[in-house]
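Hi V.,

You were right to ask for the full record rather than a summary. Here it is.
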Amino acid sequence: MKQLYILVIVLSVPPLLRGQDTIAPPPRPGSVSARIFTHFNYSLDQDNPATAFEVRRAYFGYERELDSHFSAEVKLDIGSIDDQSEFSLIRRYAYFKNAYLSYKTGHFTSWFGLMDMLQFKVQEKFWGYRYLYKSYMDEYRFGSSADLGAGIQYAPTQRFTADLVLSNGEGYKNLQFDNIYRIGSGITLRLIPGLILRTYYTIHTGEVHEMTFSGFLGYEYKGFRVGGEYNHQLNYRFNQDRDRYGYSLYSTYVFSEKWEAFARYDQLYSNILPEEEVPWNLSEDGSAIIAGIQYTPIQFVHLALNYQDWVEYAQNGASAPFLYLNIEVDF
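Predicted structure:
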């Protein structure tokens, strides 16, 4: 009992009286961030002319380092839901895009909570124009950009990074209703300056497993960068033998601090099932073309005048050519 009294007295002594080395450093101030995606589009289809001003998405976040190892972030995503109804683009919903705790020590970084998925983050950053068109896997729903789960990344050198993620697999807009999970693992290599290689594999467990393979290769030299990726998904949405696959090629040339030109070409296919004559998902198969120029008047603002077209592969399929003026505000 005497020892317990002594312990209570010691803990009750103000830190200043116990020595400066026991005083915790003051917490570092956090940072607030915001991103706004807005655009004006003009249809080049003479049979169906249309114009519109839209604000597709806005992100608002707060991030803070809690100490030398721990940090946390919360981010709201305000935008349209991903359904296919005619009213989907005029409805706006707010979701938690991120709400996680991170821990970093040595070469290891880990996350727990609602966090960004890593399956196409490298490709998205290399493409560089998320505000006007999503990266391939995100655009064609090969996986969610964020999800509830836990992840770990190991980066012993600048040339090698490996990561492993276990998540619900439902995405950040849905709750977990079952015992099905998604497991993903990837490796990133930077063998020579400017060259980056990324491979990734995910398995979404269920009675029929959905599996996704992804490979990316990019090269950057001075003001020029070019990249390509191939993605293959087996048993789409747990449907046996219904596969989707395709590739994306993109390139950018930076003329100056304010001006750059970019181009991209996508192709999306589905396989032909036994005893069928056409691909099972032909109505969704097609190719996309994006090309334009970006102007950066100040550090936080990007403007892109660009052409976008989606060409359906079905025999009676249509094309959707548009001229866009996209604006991103990032601060």
